[in-house]
Queue: 2 jobs
Job 1
Amino acid sequence: MRATEQQRELRAGIQAIGPAIEAGHIARDHSGTFSETGWKLLAETGLFGLPFDEESGGLGQDLVTTLYVLEGLGESCRDGGLNFSVSTHMVSAGVPLQRFGSAGLKARYLPGICAGTTIGAHAITEPEGGSDIMRMRTTAVADGDDFILNGTKAFVSNGPIADVIVVYARTGKPENPAGLTAFLVETDSPGLTRGNPIEKMGLRTSPLCELFLDDVRVPRRNVIGSVGAGFLVLDHVMKREILCSFVINVGEMRNRLERCVEYARTRTQFGAHIGSYQSLANKIVEMKIDVETSAKWIFDTAEKLAEGEDVSIDIAITKLITSEANVRTALSAIQVFGGYGYTAEYGLEKELRNAVAGTIYSGTTEIQKQRISTLIGLHRAVKPTKA
Amino acid sequence: MSTTETVASTIKAHILAEFLPGTPSEELDNSYDLIDNGVVDSLGLLRLISWVEQRFHVPLDEVELSPDDFRSIDAIGHFVEASTRS
Ligand SMILES: Cc1cc2nc3c(=O)[nH]c(=O)nc-3n(C[C@H](O)[C@H](O)[C@H](O)COP(=O)(O)OP(=O)(O)OC[C@H]3O[C@@H](n4cnc5c(N)ncnc54)[C@H](O)[C@@H]3O)c2cc1C
């Protein structure tokens, strides 16, 4: 994309504080610690409110600008878990509120989300399954002016630090696309408990937990969109989640590529820079191709989405290409750095561990392929014509 | 044919071609619940909404969205009329 002066300034503002935010990222990864300092620094820049209306405390920027700035976050901050928490916060709660929330809900929660003082999360996946969301078991039953929620959610990113969680629950029959509803639930609601933070392979500085809902009473006014519209809310959110979290990965890939180029130009073996050897150089060339392909898919899809085009297939392709490129480039970077790449000290093995998560969350690689095959008509039954 | 009838027949032709290939037109009632009867599943709903947006120029970003508006040919027709009325 060709950035405007204003877009460049917004991105430069984030990149200027990148080193301060990422400081200590390897030690935090080791201990699995979320950076409250980094969060506060980012909050001060106004980043969390970037795409939200100015009357709700946001900066009123469009989707493409938001992505461009988030790419800058990924490029300048190597705390991948913190970066992931940022996009989760903005997209899980802010995005559905902005598009589907009532005036009352927006007034109550969006200013805090923009300021970073009300941390957001969302709960879709359940212990029994995450891919087949239309069969989720958590229920919401109407009771006067409230709904009563019961069920268990697995893998809630930001769960341990969240103030509000958008919980998706069944208000209709399983598999019925009108059977889900999205609820904004405050984490201090009676009956809501959170499990301990879950240890995981990567993104260790982004806290994750289970969520238990035991007769949690949620006022009807906390329904986001209408009753039964949960699947449409989720689809709107997922498209933006894929763009926002993976554009951060594009920034992270750019940073990784730059470090590899620098290393390959300075590390000498057999009397020459390792970058002068074709087989090693090709690895870095392929990284460059991966980064640029991912960026093109993300920004092209975002522009189409902003223009109201149907991007269902594009989103699935974008997610596949970018998540797989992230894993590939992380693995290549370790190879370029040799033994040092394999050590924790260089932070590259952490990037590989982080990258693997991207092939699972927001719909696994297999589910994206399944979606594409359905959308191009491979699963549609057509009656055979008579010869 | 009135505009309402034209819209309904356009929607019906699309539903038959995309979701019920081979079904005779007279077998599909305009009030038939496409969602509860499993004709339109979750991905199908997204495809249908996107087709409605493009075919009838409905500014989806500016309207309330509910699956109820896509339950039947009649419901979709009402949604299109209400959303495109200036
Ligand atoms: C770091 C991280 C953060 C996450 N954050 C959140 C969060 O904030 N909120 C939330 O709700 N969830 C979150 N998740 C959960 C995530 O969305 C799910 O893990 C994911 O959707 C897969 O669901 P599952 O784990 O139940 O696997 P399953 O659905 O059980 O799948 C297991 C395997 O089977 C494959 N599979 C399943 N169905 C098919 C099929 N039809 N065809 C081919 N293969 C298939 C899958 O691709 C996968 O390889 C997070 C996950 C991770 C790793």
Job 2
Amino acid sequence: MIQHSLLREFSLFRLKRSVLLGIKSLWMHKLRSLLTAMGIVFGVCSVIAMLAIGEGASHEAQQQIKELGSQNVILRSVKATDATTAGEQERSLILEYGLTYRDIAQIQATVPGVLVTIPAREVKDFIWNESRSIDSSTLGTVPWFPEMRNRSVVRGRFFTEIEMNTRAPVCILSKSLARHLFPLSEPIGDTVRIQSSYFRVIGVIADDPATASAESEDKNGRADPNQGAGMEMLIPISTLEDHFGEVLFKYRSGSFEAEKVELHEVTVRIDEPESVMPASQAIRHLLERNHKKVDYEMIVPLDLLRRAERTKQIFNIVLGSIAAISLLVGGIGIMNIMLATVTERTREIGIRRALGAKKKDIVVQFLIETVMLSGAGGVIGVALGLAIPLVITHFAEMVTIIEFWAPALAFSISVITGVLFGIYPAFRAAGMNPVEALRHE
Amino acid sequence: MASPPTSEPVIELRGVEKHYQMGDTLVKALQGVDLKIFPGDYISILGPSGCGKSTMLNILGCLDQPSVGQYLLDGLDVSKLSDDDLSQVRGKKLGFIFQSYNLIQQLTVVENIEVPLYYQGVSEKESREIAVELATRVGLGKRLDHRPTELSGGQQQRVAIARALSNNPSVILADEATGNLDSKSGGDILEIFDRLNAEGKTLILITHDEAMSQRTSRTIRLKDGEIASDRRREEKVP
Ligand SMILES: Nc1ncnc2c1ncn2[C@@H]1O[C@H](COP(=O)(O)OP(=O)(O)OP(=O)(O)O)[C@@H](O)[C@H]1O
Ligand SMILES: [Mg+2]
């Protein structure tokens, strides 16, 4: 019985006519309907646009972290900022700090799950091609560096184990460096010079995503202005030791600095993603035992990734709250107008009741109107929300990502808002006494 | 009509009273009303202002329920029906005509006529046919897509009559149907009523107008919520 009447109530025929009727009633007050729907339009549009921007930003961050290798733990030597170091440094004149071969050997031997380690030493000095030069970083490393660090060799080749063992004077330039030193000619086969050492270029490698992201900092003048961003040359680590020795001298701002650093950077590759966190924990303990001062830093891309995901979650919660508030405001606006409409149309309600409309017919009529208002607001909001990220991407060159579910979600929420905020006015309309409604002026 | 008492009454009121509580006092808008209305009756209900005419019409029209007494419509006791069932009875068996026309402003002439059919679940095509036919019958065949604001009072009232006829009701109720009209348009409306009665429709007209009672076959006078007189004019020409 109930099922039968429900079926009758929501049959397609009645729905279609109710919708047409709703359109007519809303069309009577075009401006009012438009303004009422605006609240929902902005709510929905801001949700989609903000989601797209947030998603884009976090995707970019996650991409960069992933390029570092989610199964890697990256260790870097840094100057300890401890005050006592300064005193010692003045006495010895040579600043000795950072990671050592001993650290690597112990990590290899004791930390479970370590596949390989990639040691690297760095020299910072001018690299020359005839008269062109740039202050850049030269990294001495091992043949498996590109594979482990997800850096693709774009032209030529990387150096081989034989070249490392024979300490061959070969080098691979980062794309930016190659472009800077060889703007017009082919770098492969040519030679570059650092101080008095010459190196033959055998390949070009993609820029380091980590330093590429530091590029913006350079533009802001925070980093060393002499240091070109993404400028990097890779040579066998053995070759670097041969040419530059254990102590590195640098001429910086009018005075010489001497540093003794065994290894500037070590990348530790872990076998399974699940063992990355325990392994990094073990490495941290090991380094804490070996080093009195914190003259190293540890980057765990997986950890960064997790943190980025957590940040994104928080962002989504904040976004969700803003969306909820704006839709609440939009919903209240709709409810306000619907209450006014119900009062204004009291007479119509009375007429309809006299002509055979049941309470639920009146409820359905006003609910449909509210849902159409919010639904139309939702459609416009979705259209705007899809357009805004495109505009942002076009003009601000920001990555924006629109998840397929975002417009669907925002639209359904707008419709649900319509239903929720339409229920009260609709029931108020249906609850009117027909006699009094008919007498209403 | 010739011999109404031989058939079953379409409407029967038994001891109907309507009370309104106004603060401390109980207003008896209707009291002890007994009334039988037969198919084909053409009735005018007269009486001074405040005598309970509209109250009676509301009860007859199932818009309101009696405080005391019984109301049988087509043999069905409607004084105890639920709100939904009352709506159903109104939509199926009754046609309303109001003093201020009461058309729905956002709808056209045909659409207004279709409203009762819509709530009866009549198909779009069928209700459109009925509405067009009725609009033509009340002389608005050329104004099907006009809105109420584009029509004169008399035309609007004719739309209302067409609307009241659309569900083919047992009884048509009119409250001061000509009250807002000039004598010419009012006369047109009354002529339509005469014709409908001649076709066998049961009409109940509420009016202030003594002249109107001359046209009807039965005149009921109310006074202070009671029936003061109920006269049938046997000599009325069919
Ligand atoms: N909702 C109500 N609440 C209280 N009293 C009411 C209500 N409706 C009607 N009455 C009272 O009932 C009595 C009859 O009213 P009713 O409207 O039926 O008069 P009427 O005969 O239609 O008058 P008129 O010719 O002026 O339209 C009046 O005394 C009126 O004050
Ligand atoms: Mg009255």
